[in-house]
């Protein structure tokens, strides 16, 4: 069937809508929720290529999200949020990722901290941070290190001195901290690991934009230095327990970013094929948009994007079940552990599939276009660069092994990941 004979239901508006074929939303209210943010997402996407070329950090874009209440989505309504479910949150992260995955990465640590607060057993600590989050506080990352500390420990130290608590150390991969009010830090307190939040502007805190990766270049995922920083006791979390689905949550944020990249590149290549006038003498039609081989490429990358998003949203349901089971007072320890294990495994078995789909699509899209598509000003290379960089975090090579170990031997994936010297 040609476009000239399309049935009335497939009008021009439906064809031009990049959201029209991504499947059913994750909830009945999702469209109402998403429509609040879609104009903002479009505004962020409009400048994504320009910012990438100029290495302009998304300070304004993060500010817009804060003003719109995006960081408070998961908070209860009486705390300034909307009580978004995890599938709803990840649906929005996919759409934000289609606009700019740098921005998704920049709020990743904050979103994880929100989960820590929502699931905390320390009610006084929880109430304190719910209040700050409701006021708009934004949290950045200060967990990972690139130094000489052994796996399972940190070189960053919280010391008890006659003058009070002092923090000293250096962190890397401090994603989002340059945009944040507080930096979430992991440190050694003797033999124990402690978690604390330190104001980004406190004396002795310095956050550098020295991330030199070829992708995700605008996340400010560089170095944070803590030099004899005075730490108030209330900044230290009473326990080192994280929310039970922390590992799959942080990984699923990356998968949502990849699914967003898939949607963006699928939309981009379709639009460019629609607009392309130049054809090859050995092609199949007088218009590129009518060439069946080119349409096949467009369909392939669109199918990859659809599948990546569908898998990510399905895995988000497993995280929601873990969250609900954790808060269910009638659930016993075995039920909680089972829900947590399934959340880990569902995300783990999604990693390799989504990664492969999006990395392949970010290369295949060029088969539908000419050499001009490789110009830096087109910005199409950023899809592969960003996807490849995201996929290098928490390497996918271990995920398939963990799934195999679970289904064959019942081995539950690890509850936390650490990087350091062996």
TrEMBL record:
Residues 254-393 form the Acyl-CoA dehydrogenase C-terminal domain. The keyword Transport does not apply. The keyword DNA repair does not apply. Keywords: Monooxygenase, Oxidoreductase. SUPFAM superfamilies: Acyl-CoA dehydrogenase C-terminal domain-like, Acyl-CoA dehydrogenase NM domain-like. Signal peptide: none annotated. Residues 42-136 form the Acyl-CoA dehydrogenase/oxidase N-terminal domain. It comes from the Bacteria. One of its GO terms (molecular function) is monooxygenase activity. Pfam families: Acyl-CoA_dh_2, Acyl-CoA_dh_N. This is Monooxygenase. It comes from Caballeronia grimmiae.
